[in-house]
Every structure is written in structure tokens, then in C-alpha cells.
User: What shape does this take?
Amino acid sequence: TETYENVHMEVTVNNNSTDPTAAFGIMCNQQPVDSSFYYFAMTPAGEYAIVKASIALSDVFLTNNDKWATSDAITQNASSYRIGADCGNGTLTFYVDGKQIDSVSDSTYTSGGVGLFAWSGEEPSGTDVTFDDFVMTKLGQ
Assistant: This one.
């Protein structure tokens, strides 16, 4: 398993979901031993969260007092989104379509694996996304 640190990632998410509570995003600093990691999630309804997942513990939303937040900067029900994440130097920053949505400080995990995810919301068959044009670069370059 490759380990990365201090990275910026971007991916295009083509959204054909019919469920506004479908969610998708980017994971970083996944720990190889226990699957602890950070993830940046958003929904087509304009909700988002930056979250810390730890083995045997409930996920901790590092944004909006441990709850989903809504951002006017996220276009609702768009056919595609360009999402981005910075993971490094103790800071986690989330971008949608080139706009910074939120940023938090947490240095529990400083390196690890990366990934993309999608999950179904209220309608199990309502989530339909594809990922394209994934790019990862070192922060500061």
C-alpha cells in the first residue's frame, strides 16, 4: 500500500443521482492497520462535511459542530462537480468547483492511503456517480 502525505487531490464527479442525499467525496491519510482516515463528503443538495473516521469509534464531523453543513457555494443538483481536498500540515481543506468550502485543523493522521467513495442516502438505488480525471499533487507545488 502506498503512503502519501501533504497532498492536494482533485476529481470530477459526474452526478446522475436521483437521490439528493446521495453522498460522494475523497478520502485521505487512511491508516493501513486499522482503516482510520479523513473524508470529505458532499451531496447534490449542497451539504458537506469534513470527517475523521477512527476504528471502533463514531465518525467525528470536524465541521459545523459535528453535523452536516450546507454551503451556498455548492451548486445544487449539478450534473458534475470538480471536488478537491488538501490533506497536510495539520490542515484539511475542501473545495468544490474551485471554491474553498471549508477548512479545519486536525493532525491525528499525517500520512496514509487515498481513495474516492460514493454512498447511497435515502434511496438505495438513487446513487449513480462516476469519477474521472483524478489528479494528486504535493501540497505547495
Remarks:
- The chain has no helices and eleven strands.
- The first strand starts at residue 7 and ends at 15.
- Residues 56 and 124 are 25 Å apart (CA to CA).
